[in-house]
């Protein structure tokens, strides 16, 4: 495995916590004990039954019990080596009704391993019902959330068993992203894989036959492949930091604070605001934990860059070379070009202007492609680890402004614009995870019935409790192209939209909404607000994060506070 893959695996192992194995053939003794610790005499049924001696004999497990047992200690040892807690359930279908007893608890398992048979006479029906109930009972946005289910079976033709599971999920309108893979199902972060238990007589599916160590490693590798990236690694590391510091959070928010909290709540005009205040305090403490622990090392970044598949695409790299190193505008003169271009051999009669004459650099200079590739790698590493302001290379690295550095790693100019838009969206717009009804506040983004965009700059304190009608000040937003000047990125339907703010007070307006019961003004069922004066509706599109919204409000206040005076025109022009 690659260096970055292994570093990602360390993050995954730190994040994951528990594994649950459900199998009706569990053995809670080791394999040798299970095979040899049998009674010395076995009574054979019948009238003339006589004890049969077993002394000196070694009976196989299949002679006295299930054919394909699994041994708990082996799994405990393997998962413990990877810092995971492993627990076991040996089901009784008659008593727990197809695992209903465990379904809610098992939703908390990071990894779930099931046998295809969960009892006498059961041929996968219980597993299919259990997987279906585990997923189907969740809200829609949780159905494809992070969950790993492994089927570990000694049956033959496991590809057919997997097709049965895929059909069940297809009937639930959950699309398989790996339709061509006969042993694996994936939808979002939901992964279901099937593996064969290791035994000598296995006929089919030998390519997925795994012992305990191999199964453990395969499952962890699947997680790494799913979250194999710098941003996912940082997110998982953050979540692991929060988990590990839960006790510190609870110490900060102990029951000793109850009297002070009740006093605070009782003195507020609206007591329910106290809960929101506590939530804000908790989020700030979580931020403190992340600030202490969040980091990514240069060696991880360098291994990611070094191992990236882009370096295999020589034809695309030539376009990057042209932009980075063969543009006459980035060199002072021909001597500067010669001094900084040790990756190519330059003819004596070469003129700098020739760089604009052709896209085929090889017709002008003799390029050492490996040297050029190595230089680009090192320059990218320097740019990412030190920042563009610290680069000790010439100004050609203006190329690393968006979207060019993104397009380098995507191997695609078009997709890079969309990815940069998604990242901008994440950094500026608030995410609503629980489908709660949004309300109007500072930073709410609206779209009217004429397809014009507006931004609320109503102070948060005025938006918290509204009695009667209220006039909401809104700034005009203009739609722009991705490469044009813009301040805000939002998602309008399925499209990422780029908006520029018009700070001019003369172009702002107010809309009048109806409030009641000293509560925030929430959208109606269609996610719209209705202007009761102009009878115009405003579709809710999103809400800016607090810092971004406050910055815009401050910028508008500065624009509003400008002072215009009459003075000597010569004086005015001298300082303009």
Write the layout of secondary structure elements.
Layout: H1 3-15, E1 18-22, E2 26-27, H2 31-36, E3 41-43, E4 51-53, H3 61-64, E5 70-71, H4 72-81, E6 85-89, H5 93-96, H6 103-106, E7 111-114, H7 125-136, E8 147-153, H8 158-171, E9 184-187, E10 190-197, E11 209-210, H9 212-226, H10 230-244, H11 246-252, H12 258-267, H13 273-293, H14 298-306, H15 314-325, H16 334-340, E12 344-345, E13 366-367, H17 369-386, H18 404-410, H19 413-428, E14 444-448, E15 453-456, H20 460-464, E16 466-480, E17 488-492, E18 495-502, E19 509-519, E20 528-530, E21 537-543, H21 546-560, H22 569-575
Parallel strand pairs: 1-6, 1-7, 2-5, 7-8, 8-10, 10-11
Antiparallel strand pairs: 3-4, 9-10, 12-13, 14-15, 14-21, 15-16, 16-18, 16-19, 17-18, 20-21
Structure description:
By secondary structure, this protein is α/β, with parallel strands linked by helices. It contains 22 helices and 21 strands. The strands form five sheets. Strands 14, 15, 16, 17, 18, 19, 20 and 21 form an eight-stranded antiparallel β-sheet that branches. Strands 1, 6, 7, 8, 9, 10 and 11 form a seven-stranded mixed β-sheet that branches. Strands 2-5 form a two-stranded parallel sheet. α1 packs parallel to α10, α14 packs antiparallel against α17 and α18 packs across α19. The protein starts with a helix and ends with a helix. About 3% of the residues have low confidence.
Brief overview:
With 576 residues, the chain is α/β, with parallel strands linked by helices. Strand 14 (444-448) and strand 15 form a beta hairpin.
